[in-house]
Amino acid sequence: MKYVTAIMTQSTKAENCAWNMQYTPYDQSYLDAFYRHKDNDGRRFRLSDITAPGGAKASKGNPHYEFLGVTRYWRFSKETMQKLYKAGRIVQTAPGTVPAQKRYLDEMPGVPLQDLWLDIKPVQGLSAETVGYDTQKPEPLLDRIIKLSSNEGDLVLDCFCGSGTTAAVAEKLKRRWITCDLGRFAIHTARKRLLAIPGVRPFIVQNLGKYERQLWAGSQFGDGNGERAEARQRDYVNFILGLYQAKPLNGYSWLHGVKGGRMVHVGAVDAPVSVGDVAQIAAEFKRAIGTGKDAPKTNGVDLLGWDFAFEMNEVAKQQAALANIQVRFLRIPHDAMDKRAVEQGDIHFFELAALSVETKMDKREVTLKLSDFVIPPDDVPEDVRRTVKHWSQWIDY
Question: Which residues contact 195 (CB under 8 A, 6 or more apart)?
Fold first, then answer.
């Protein structure tokens, strides 16, 4: 079965939109019928008619003159005809016959793209590009669409990325791209696929699982406004504290629990823990010192979050150190949403992935030294973990 697809007519508000016509190869029967001739160097060509309509109504200004002993209305001016003849592009097969123009096959782009695309086959099970994703599209299909409607450096958006074919092809064609999906498996599949591209440019994954978490929180703790919303938030915080084996606290806005003498903050379901949050936590921590039985016993704070702002490990830790607070960032694992994992007590919190780099500058030379490196195994798919043979591969990943 051949792969059949259709592309909608392009619609845009911009007047300078890209539209680069694509071509498909000529059918072999067409080549055999029309490109029968060959030059001495083996180049195939066909002979094309260069006469034009004549007469008062039909000529439309076409020139009328004698060329190689033949008088006709022609498609070209006499000057252009002489240049083409001198270049060997006009031939006369016999004296008195009408001259014709050589059209070389290697100069023809092919057949302009039609509405139905019958030449692209689906991804086969043993194909080198298959990633085991049910709805995976073949790369030649996206290659054609992206070339047709964009230029190098343009931005390509795919709101339902699936296996990541659009992003992978856009990357290979030197386009910028944004791709989205609600499924965790789709995001991991696309990410792994992009990382396998030689020379892939740096990219980031944002808000992985955010919508999945929102759905989970709504079903687990309910929806509501006012007092019900406060109760829902309290239930959520206490649930995460229970998984972390921390004791809940009351009377604080940013300090939610305590474990082993360290205060604990639980990040929101739908927002990353930010540097601003750390500032608020530090301020509340300082006010809480020595103010009751639940007052901090150490200067340590554990921040639990689903997502973290990218500058957390550098800026936020420096900010906390200035306030004489020692912070740790721990990621709330995806397994917290798995009822079976919760019931089995198989929930583990890992420190946020981080690189600590020392820099040394000497005039125009900069030396970088890796002084620490942390990556939580929970962030890395099992098949990737099995392939890592050297510590440096963790950093590459």
Answer: 397
Q: Is the pTM higher than 0.90?
A: no
- The DSSP code for 159 is S
Instruction: Check if the beta carbon of residue 342 is closer than 8 Å to that of residue 314.
Output: no
| Per-residue pLDDT tens over the stretch 42-85 | 888 888 899 988 765 555 678 999 999 999 999 899 999 999 99
Strand partners, 71: 66
Give the number of other CB atoms < 10 A from CB of residue 88.
Answer: 9
Parse the chain into domains and list their residue ranges. 24-107, 241-352
What is the rounded CA–CA span in Å between residue 374 and residue 355? 7
Helix 184-195 to helix 165-172 angle, to the nearest 10 degrees? 20
Angle at 221 between CA 224 and CA 214, to 5 degrees: 85
Which ranges of the chain does DSSP label H, i.e. alpha helix?
A: 28-34, 78-86, 139-149, 165-172, 184-195, 210-221, 227-243, 275-288, 317-322, 339-343, 382-387, 391-396
Q: Cα(220)–Cα(213) distance, rounded to whole angstroms?
A: 10
Percent of the chain at pLDDT > 90 equals 33
3-state SS class at 49: strand
CA distance 221 to 231: 9
In the structure encoding, which two tokens stand for residue 173, read together? 């064609």
CA 114 to chain centre: 28
Do residues 313 and 354 touch, judged by C-beta distance below 8 A? Answer: yes
In 10 A of CB 121, how many CB atoms?
Answer: 13
The rounded distance, in Å, linking the Cα atoms of 349 and 259 is 13
Q: d(Cα 119, Cα 141) in Å, to the nearest integer?
A: 10
**Beta 247-248 vs 257-259: how paired, if at all?**
antiparallel
pLDDT tens-digit readout, 130-156: 888 888 999 999 999 999 889 999 999
d(CA 22, CA 20): 6
Which two three-digit tokens encode residue 260?
């082993």
Q: Do residues 240 and 266 lie in contact, with contact meaning Cβ atoms separated by under 8 Å? A: yes
